[in-house]
Queue: 4 jobs
Job 1
Amino acid sequence: MLRQAQDLPAVLQAIVALDAWNELSVLQHAPWLGRLLCASILRQARITTGAHLVAINLGLKTIPVDQRRHRDRQTRLLAIAHGFIAAAEMGLKEHDRLALARKMMERKLDGRRTSSKLPELVELVMAKPLVSAGMVAKTLDVTPQAARRIVLELGLREMTGRGRFRAWGSL
């Protein structure tokens, strides 16, 4: 199947390969390997990275199962393509959300001293979805108490709801 789709663009190759994997049921108890094959094809064409597999899976989940497993091949291929489109749309929405969160945090940096640790904390929060006081303290080279104070100053939302171990993130 891959040889037949060799002349197609990489995204279509991945769609055809995923459909073939699902239809042939190569490994009945491992349908996820088909999605890995699909991601591998896209990675070889330098279209995506290893981190895009999650996005592809989430995009495919938005498409109803009856369309993805339809008897008509064209319907299945279109469903997989719509799953890729949904994944791209979700990625763009997430990017916009993170860009807005970064702007909101950077507004709090105005008028700060040049020795302030807040810019470093903004970079850490943008790089990691969830940060703990220990992580902040180690990265910024401050005490855990100072880390909690800096986090509160930035206005991050507490995600754990626990007193002993706290973790924050930007929403």
Note: The chain is about 60% helix and 5% strand.
Job 2
Amino acid sequence: MSSRRSAIPSDSLLQLRQRLDRLPPKSPERANQIAATAQLYGISVTTVYRALHLVLKPRTAHRSDHGQPRILPPSELEHYCELIAALKLRTTNKSGRHLSTGRAIQLLEEHGVETVQGLIKSPKGLLRKQTVNRWLSRWRLDQPRLLREPPAVRFQAENSNDCWQFDMSPSDLKHIERPDWVDPARGEPTLMLFSVVDDRSGVAYQEYRCVYGEDAESALRFLFNAMAPKTRSDFPFQGRPKLLYLDNGPVAKNHVFQNVMQSLKVDWLTHTPAGKDGPRTTARSKGKVERPFRTVKEAHETLYHFHKPETELQANEWLWNYLSRYNAQRHRSEKHSRLEDWLANIGQEGVRDMCSWEQYCRFAREPESRKVGVDARITIDGTAWEVEPDMAGETVILLWGLFDEEMYVEFTGETWGPYYPVSGPVPLHRYRTFRRGKAAERADRIHALARQLNI
């Protein structure tokens, strides 16, 4: 059988072209190479030249209308695709379910879609599901791209105490054996983990507290401890932050909390809930306070399987021992520890000192106007408070805060008190006489003067 072929394989043509390219343009060796190839395949030299010319001739890889729709002009098809994409986006629920492309085309053909420009209907049989899906993907109108999150923006405070992130999370321990207090009407309190994290350094301060839900009183008590100087020498974290970033929950909405933050000159910013900022994952913004929660629950609270704390004080002592090691660990981006980063990046004005507990309690007072009863008592939530006799029947301003066990009263521009809760009504066959005040003495004097007057 003859080994000669009527056509030259493409790889042989490429090898021949490479050999010819390495030779000078007028080299006689070029003709020898062409002749040898023609003799090898049993064809003429002209056929070899023709084959070389066809190899180098450019050819179109696609049709002339490649990338353009054929059933409609691009603008019209794009308008239909936008309507279908809008239908699918409008019908998307929280589980990600939405109208299919075929169903959306059917609605366009049978009923149409009301838009600002009016009713728009598609002719039947014009749009096909495969065609629409292909152009939705090419024009980036498909669901994955329309619901794609915007690029994440990483923010970080410039100095220490510029921003604190504050949050609360139920402990995995749930309860302790001997809580400090129990409300019989509400059952056993929940062991809650309170945390603040410095945005710049990542230093965390946390406390356990037995609470019944998220309340402003527990949050304010914790924030005072976080801002006040610590008794531990290995934990210098303190001071009033410039900004407090927290959830938009009952604490941030509480008027007493807002008044205290305004008095301390601490701005607060609430976290945007999920779904309120488009497809962006809003929880990423508070990740610096959520990360220590997970670390404590995985590295510290898992050891409670061996030994559980019995009291809130004991649980906090163990927690603070762990936090000392946690803050001594490396910073997320720097080559030193979190605590060293906090100390090294304190602003030029220094740490803003925290006020005393007494002043803090005054900040937590919310003035309230009340009318004193004829028995010189004020009843608040079933508890009676006895004030000065001169205030009987008068309207006074109560100065009573979240942390006060006593009550102060503002009357005639002066602050009176402290007053404490009194017992119930006077028992039968017992009598009580009020101490006569200045108002009573003045009234007696006016009465005596009235009896002496004569016209």
Note: Residues 74-90 form the longest helix (17 residues).
Job 3
Amino acid sequence: MAAAVEGVRHRTLEANGVRLHVAEAGPEEGSAPVVLLLHGFPDLWYGWRHQMSALAARGYRAVAPDLRGYGDSDSPPDASSYTTFHVVGDLVALISDLGQRQVFVVGHDWGATVAWQLCLLRPDLVRALVNLSVVYHPRRPEMSPLQAIRAACGEDHYMCRFQVNKWSTVLPFPLHTATAAPMGQAGSINGCIQEFGVAEAEFALYDIKWVFKKTFGMRKPAPLILPKDKSFFDSLDSDGTCPPWLSEEDISYYAEKFAKTGFTGGLNYYRCIDRSWELSAAWTGAPIKVPSKFIVGDLDITYNAPGVPDYIHKGGFKASVPNLEDVVVMEGVSHFINQEKPNEVSDHICEFFSKF
């Protein structure tokens, strides 16, 4: 059941062989420009609720899907079905189903990665782009993404931990009985049986509302390293209380949806990182030419990853995205920037798109 957000309507569309749940706000038909909003992990269309209202108030038609593997959209059972090529294919079909030749695009976290790839593969479909948190990383032919992560941060980086997609009944850290509330050891996601991996096993040890409070509340501006003797949540700096920019009702919505689907769909995006790299060889060296704006918080772990600040501020980013028109670094803001600073982010989005 979709959350009741004023002015937001819901429907399901067939796109690229999967059913996508889509939330919309603003004019239903006509010439209103469409803004496609792409969420990340662990998120849903709901993470864009503030921007949807702001865009609708300015005459845009805001469209926020649950990406494949999330919420009320289909979750293909094969982990290999979550490459960026699969997800971009979904979006190409969705744009067509919406009756559009071009759309504006906004992405956050994995949604930003997918948005960069949409602009790389199908720039004809994107009028302009605003991406949050995750910069465009051009393909390195000599080294896969996971090889680069291991070289910079070691095997304990969280993306490496997320790769293990086979269930393990033995975890290298003790249970925390104060928060433990298992969600189960098997997953049926929208009718598809999914095999749990080690990350899912860790997530399932805890009360799911606490999981979201802990995740949304992280503010440590450093790479997320997970020592093998600690769980994912031991490594987060947040205390598990609800961040001030979220309500208990918000947390309950996330908890309800992920309690039904589990986290496997979203984790499979990480498990396809190197496969997406392999498939993208033909685009090695290709720049992204779509007019773009980038927004990030200075406490975001993505902004503080090794080499990223220099890449952003010393010309590398601009070389890869030659029509990058603006970079905004928000002080004192962490990863979930569109929810932590909704008004400021909405204003940046609307101001930039108004140029086109």
Note: The radius of gyration is 19 Å.
Job 4
Amino acid sequence: MLEMEIRIEPHGQLPVYVQLKEQIKFLILSGELEPGARLPTAKQLGGFLHINRNTVLKAYRELVREGLIECRRGAGCTVLEQPAAISQSVFGRLLAVIDDAIEQASELGVGPDDFAALAYARAKQRQDVQAKRRLIFVECSPEGADALAHKIEEKLDLEVTAVVLRDLEQPTPEVEELLQDAEVIATTFFHIQELRELLPKTKKQLVALSVKPHLDSLVEIAGIPQGTTVLLVCLSESGASDMKRSLEDAGIKGLDFSLRGVDEPERLAEAVPEHPVVVASDYVAGEVLPLLRPDQTSIVLDYTTLDEGAIYLLRSVIGKEAPVT
């Protein structure tokens, strides 16, 4: 029989089949059980560990479901050639994190068995909560909504539905259904107030995310001579203020900024001719650029890069039940 170092605590916090499954999984992920290795039969392993064969079968079924082994009648169970698991490089880093957590738990008076039970229960809890979470991302343009929704999906491994802001003004039955199913509705700081006004009675979590302009745009703005008067234009003056803050956070200093929003077209039309440089967010560029003279410089800020703080915020919201607005 294949030698496997497995230790079962019959009276431990974790069910016996979970202890068995997780230890076999560890052996596979660590490379101690190589692809193609044949596992003992349920009867053999049950006898060796002094546990019921049905408990072994249950553990094996879980491993099959997770894509780590395959079991065939008459041929037994073998480790898959390419298990759907964690890469070896990531696995090594995770071990370091786990070892550190075990040491910290020990300092708090929590033994390995209790820690394992708590860690397993917490992981399942997070998994169950995330499975229930459905995220909608709202933006003012289809392109912006799709781009940022895709970036969130990449970062969080979570399905995100993109919705355009104007579709919330008179939502179709399809949009109504999306809103009903969603647990979290996110947008950028530029649109959070509009979102609250469009969904005044919602019980859903509304989350404002910070975004930062594309690096190419920042380089172009950084090249503007110090002391130049620059007009920042967004959907509203408040949005332009957020633009100013994001530019200053990116290290843009020494420019004389004025702020305007396209929601005040007369004030905008008066301000544009007075500024040699006009910086417009990609949300409003189509309305602003036609107002410029040929001798004026225009820069469009492409806000399709999520701030790391935005990802952290979303991860914390998705991982807990408490509302965040």
Note: The chain has four domains: 16-79, 88-132, 135-212+307-318, 215-302.
